[in-house]
Design goal:
single chain, alpha/beta, 7-stranded mixed beta sheet
Length: about 270
């Protein structure tokens, strides 16, 4: 195993959507959730992304998720995810994130997805990107059905504890590791590594990143995976070094950003 890793949050960091909401339509179609559940979940997700999440809101989300899934057949959920993954997720993978993941892999780092979404959703999405390691929420199961209880809720400080456990097991030096997230709830995760970056940050995380002088990356180009692979040779990637005393992070100069950086450098030299 490598001595360092890159930890990626999923929603709005690797994919330009909510993984939980993305599967809402097929879950509703197959009778797992009601229209009321769809509306309530969408509103909760909107409020979360608008203002971030504190400990109380994460607890409420955890409890709601557990109750919502109670009685669902595990095999049915996995089948729905498998049948709809290509349609619902592939078109929303940020090309910038996919390239960044490849850059880390080329440098010999392990890639680990860290998401509060269920493991049944996160693991297949990771597989689409060639990622086998995930830290995700795990539901308790009995007789092939979810019990309405949660074994592990991958959010907030719990994410950090899971990251530290896997670092201890594999010998990662967290000072040499990278982390990427869009949410203020992941400040503990970002602070735990030597190379944190805020990606498409919510307002609270953007403020935090500015105060801590963390790099801020903007991912704006979701591209279907198959098309991105066909066009890969034409997509430039660059590394960015930001600020005095700020850790070096991999960044992406794409769709005009490279030209703007060159123009800024030329102006500074005058």
């Amino acid at each position: 195993m490598g001595r360092s890793a890159a930890f990626f949050d999923l929603d709005k960091t690797v994919i330009a959507t909510s993984s939980a909401l993305a599967f809402g339509r097929p879950f509703y179609r197959d009778g797992l959730i009601t229209k009321r559940d769809v509306v309530k979940t969408a509103y909760a997700q909107f409020m979360f992304k608008r203002g971030g999440a504190d400990d109380q809101s994460m607890v409420r989300t955890r409890d709601y998720m557990a109750e919502l899934c109670k009685g669902w057949k595990v095999d049915q959920v996995r089948q729905i995810v498998g049948e709809t993954l290509h349609e619902l997720i592939d078109p929303y993978i940020y090309a910038e994130a996919a390239i960044l993941i490849e850059e880390h892999q080329a440098a010999g780092r392990d890639i680990i997805l860290v998401s509060a979404s269920g493991e049944e959703m996160v693991a297949p999405i990771g597989a689409q990107l060639g990622i086998t390691d995930v830290i995700a929420t795990r539901m308790k199961v009995a007789d092939g059905r979810y019990t309405g209880e949660i074994d592990f809720y991958a959010a907030g400080q719990a994410k950090v504890e899971a990251v530290r456990r896997i670092a201890d097991e594999r010998g990662y030096d967290l000072a040499e590791c990278y982390a990427y997230s869009d949410s203020v709830s992941d400040v503990p995760l970002l602070a735990a590594v030597g190379h944190p970056s805020a990606v498409n940050p919510d307002k609270a995380l953007r403020r935090e990143a500015l105060e801590r002088r963390w790099p801020v990356l903007e991912f704006r180009h979701p591209v279907p995976l198959a098309r991105r692979l066909r066009n890969r040779p034409a997509v430039p990637v660059a590394a960015a070094a930001l600020g005095l005393g700020v850790t070096v992070a991999i960044g992406i100069a794409w769709y005009g950003r490279r030209r703007r950086a060159r123009a800024a450098a030329a102006a500074a030299a005058l």
